[in-house]
Prior knowledge:
Shape: elongated
Structural class: alpha/beta
Helix content: 10-25%
Low-confidence stretches: 1-8, 832-844, 851-876
Largest sheet: 32 strands, mixed
Radius of gyration: 43 Å
Amino acid sequence: MASSAMTYTNITTDQLALLSLKSQIISDPFHFLDESWSSATYVCHWVGVTCGSRHQRVKSLNLSNMALTGRIPPDFGNLTFLVSLDLGSNDFHGNLPQEMARLRRLKFLNLSFNSFRGEVPSWFGLLHQLQFLNLMNNSFTGSIPSSFSNISTLEMLNLAFNSLEGHIPKDIGNLENLRFLNLGKNKLIGSIPMSISNASMLETLILSYNFLQGNIPEGISNLHNLNKLTIEVNQLTGSIPFSIFNISRLEVIGLTNNSLSGNVPADLCDHLPVLKGLYLSNNKLVGHMPPGLSNCSELQMLSLSGNSFDGPIHSNIGSLSNLQFLHLGFNYFTGTIPQEIGNLVNLVELTLQRNQITGSIPVSIFNISSLQILTLWKNNLNGSLPQEIGNLTKIQTLRLDRNKFSGKIPKKMSNLVELEILALGDNSFTGSFTEIFNISKLRIFDVTSNNLTGVLPSNIGSVLPNIEGLYLGVTNLVGTIPHSISNCSKLTSLDLSHNKLTGLIPNSLGYLTHLETLNLERSNLTSDSSLSFLTSLTKCKKLTTLSVSFNPLNGVLPVSIGNFSTSLVRFYANSCKIKGRIPNEVGNLSNLIDLVLGENDLIGSIPTLTRNLRNLQRLYLNNNKLTGFIGDTLCKLQYLGAIYLGKNQLSGSLPNCLGNVTSLREIYLGSNKFSSNIPASLGNLKELMELDLSSNNMGGSLPPEIGNLNAATQMDLSMNQFTNEIPREIGGLQNLIYLTLKHNKLQGSIPDSMSNMVALEFLDLSHNYISGNIPMSLEKLQNLKYFNVSYNKLYGEIPSGGPFKNLSSQFFLLNEALCGPQRFSVPPCPTSSKHRSNRKRMLVLFLLLGVALVFVPSTLVFVWIRRKPNEFEGDLSLKQWVSYSLPETVMDVADANLVLLTDNHLKKKLDCVASILKVALDCCVESPARRTNMKDVVGMLQKVKIQLLDC
């Protein structure tokens, strides 16, 4: 009786624990527990419950796949006789209670495909009899407890598809009975521990989809029982240990999406007789295709894509009779496709895209009746497609685009009734393609950029009911867009650009509610004056890109354009003969990135609500008739990268706040009526690459801050009214390739700092008032191909080295006193010895003059004329007497010892003396503000010096 009472108490304990579990279940949609778990029924007869025959205690609980939702209560720990627990594929959530540590008899525990969270409990290490533990597909966080290494009986450990972090425990290899380890799809970091090689019983090792780094341990080759090794999608580096390919039981090797480098062994299949899957794609592997692949006779899946393999594709690959998937794309394979590939009669997928394959497609490939996917795009394949292509009756994806195929599209292609994706674009196919419209399962149809002809069928909506992407650009289409296209209700992308279509753009396009991209540019399409098709398209709430550029629309932008969904990102209507004003409602398109309305007949001002386009990156309103000011509207657009407002009638000043839009890379404001200075704030635009302010009325000095535009490659400031000197800071533009300052009023000299502009290829300074010498240092500009300084006031020697060797005389026309080689059509710079004494005398004279001009201008004049200040008649002063004597009576003023009357070049030398005296007088005027700048004095003296040396 005592024994019976004890048994009753124990089974009651189990019953109460199970009822406590039932109370925590908030959803039992199939009523598994509602109808079975009650006190009216013996607990050992409840659904999912199995009791032991010896102790009549609950031994096994299996509630898997019952769609239950709830928590595990603490009382669950009272099921101390439980050996097997399976709650997999339900929706249990919350933390695992600590009390479960009392389930010391547990051998099998499956909690997979639930919503448990929190850290993986360390108390699992107390379950010393546990053999099977599956926690995959939950929401566990934290690190993997090191206590797992205490479960010496563990044979299967699956923690995949959680959010576990940290390292793989270093002592994981202590689990000597472990046969299955899956830690994939977590957030594990660090390296693969070396101790893993101690788990000698391992048959399956899966560490994929983590952030593991370092090399693959060489010791993995000690796992002689391993049949599946996958460490895909990590950050592993180094080479693949060749010893791995000696594990003869391996059936799957998966190392894709890492950064593994080096070669793979030529004989990799010699010791892998049962290998079925070899996944090495998306690494950095090099070398040729291993010739020994043919020895992997059981191989079903071979993926070498996304590496740097080169050389030919070996013909012996055709001996892999079990091969179903062959992925060789994104490499550098050369040569032709071997005819023997046609022997792979079980092949389902063949991908060879983005290689350097040449020749035609072997006809044998079209006899592989099992083929479902064939992708050969972006190679150098040529020739025509044979009629045998119609044999691929199971083909679902056929991509032959971006090759050099020619000829007609075979009519037999209409036999491909299972075809869903067909891409033949960017080839040279000819003839018609109307037969393809009969393949009703087509989802993607791309024949862009061929020499095809044809019309869109009037019943296109019924013959292509499943079409999602229709790409017919640049195919010589004629006729109109049929209204029935609105029945293609699944269409997301439509490209009819660059064709010969005519007629109105149908308003029925607005019924394509899934439409995301519409490209009709350059198709000669028209519309009514109100552009009503735009109004209809506002019903397409998923539309992101709309391009109607280069069509003669001849209408006015409707106010309804503001009703486009905020999904619209790009709107292109360039060169469409659009008239009228830009509606203010365009400001409603808050997610717009590109707004392109250039080369139209738009009038009025830029709408102020444009400032609401806070995501705008490119604004093209060039070549219109826009008027008014820019104001600060554009300054609100902090992501703006390109402004094209050239060839309008905009006026006023450039806003100073434009320098705050630091994302700007291109500014084109040329051919307007702007009249301000260049704001110094433009120097803040560190990413600006192109600046065009040409053909305006802008004036003032070029700001020194212009030298801060270090990224600039092109700059056009020509045809304005800029004055004063070119700032020396401009020499900081070392990336500038193109610079034109022509037709301004610039003065001063060419800054020597321009020799630092090492990338410069084009420099035009013509039609200004620039004086001084051409700096010899410009000879360092080895990339310079165009250099124009004509119509200025330059003098001195023209450089003849470096890029100046290839310049012609037209670039130096009409300056004051340039000299140099004859090919420049200027006088030679004098170097003759017969005038050496005169030069010496004149150089002394220049030395005296230079000192005197700086210190005592009146004393200089006295030295030259050898007369005392009181030796003049009447009220004349020294300066007045010299001034009245210029230029006709210079000999009355100058000392006769300076210029001899018998000199052969008397007239020229007297002119030089007169010029020097004039410089002296300009230096000693009473008002300091009117005195000549000393930098200009030096330039004037240099010019006179050249004239003297020429005498």
